[in-house]
């Protein structure tokens, strides 16, 4: 009920009225049953517009830091993420990664839609980067299709480092579901997982025509941080 109120009564109508988002391929989202929505990730607001523009609720896995902030800002952030159907996960790796995988599988096990950003983090420069193989494991273990989703111009509306969105029109392009049932039972094979993940990233690149670089986005961000530390104090580089 809370999710429905936020989407259709409180937040949704205001956001739609201001930003006039558009969508192509809405019918490619399954009308029922579990599926993974695999999206590129350009901006913080991606997790707002995708659930807003499709009929079914979408659950995203968000880093736990968003749910543990203190004070008024922490409360507002926590309220927002809960209102948009997001679940906290620990992205520190190791056992935390396994727990995140299990959380995602629980969502899919309920027959719901799970939103995932295969790159693992926001693109620092608008390019599409190498996908993490966790999405492939989930798809095989849950035996669900993967629906490629491309967010358009959300980085123009709210670039990394900004706090207030600009008034700009954004869009969503949804491709046809990808079926990986031919790999059933092979979720323990890391080469198969990499092959599936790469196939998903190719589908995203073709759908959105983003420039692709075969390196992890987190690696690029680390380079930017290191470059910032070496730069003069008067020079700054905004990173997520």
From TrEMBL:
<dbReference type="Pfam" id="PF01553">
    <property type="entry name" value="Acyltransferase"/>
</dbReference>
<feature type="domain" description="Phospholipid/glycerol acyltransferase">
    <location>
        <begin position="35"/>
        <end position="154"/>
    </location>
</feature>
<dbReference type="GO" id="GO:0016746">
    <property type="term" value="F:acyltransferase activity"/>
</dbReference>
<dbReference type="InterPro" id="IPR002123">
    <property type="entry name" value="Plipid/glycerol_acylTrfase"/>
</dbReference>
<protein>
    <submittedName>
        <fullName>Lysophospholipid acyltransferase family protein</fullName>
    </submittedName>
</protein>
<keyword id="KW-0012">Acyltransferase</keyword>
<keyword id="KW-0808">Transferase</keyword>
């Amino acid at each position: 009920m809370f999710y429905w109120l936020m989407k259709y009564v409180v937040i949704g109508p205001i956001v739609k009225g201001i930003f006039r988002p558009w969508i192509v391929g809405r019918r490619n989202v399954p009308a029922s049953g579990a599926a993974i929505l695999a999206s590129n990730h350009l901006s913080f607001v991606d997790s707002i517009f995708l659930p807003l523009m499709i009929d079914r609720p979408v659950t995203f896995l968000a880093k736990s830091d968003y749910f543990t902030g203190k004070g008024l800002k922490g409360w507002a952030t926590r309220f927002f993420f809960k209102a948009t159907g997001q679940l906290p996960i620990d992205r520190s790796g190791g056992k935390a990664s396994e727990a995140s995988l299990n959380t995602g599988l629980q969502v899919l096990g309920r027959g719901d839609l799970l939103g995932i950003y295969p790159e693992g983090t926001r693109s620092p420069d608008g390019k599409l980067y190498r996908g993490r193989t966790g999405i492939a494991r989930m798809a095989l273990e849950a035996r669900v299709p993967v629906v490629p989703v491309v967010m358009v111009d959300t980085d123009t509306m709210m670039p990394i480092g900004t706090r207030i969105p600009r008034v700009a029109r954004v869009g969503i392009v949804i491709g046809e579901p990808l079926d990986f049932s031919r790999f059933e039972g092979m979720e323990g094979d890391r080469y198969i997982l990499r092959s599936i993940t790469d196939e998903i990233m190719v589908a995203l690149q073709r759908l959105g025509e983003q420039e692709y670089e075969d390196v992890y986005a987190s690696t690029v961000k680390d380079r930017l941080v290191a470059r910032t530390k070496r730069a003069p104090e008067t020079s700054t580089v905004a990173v997520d």
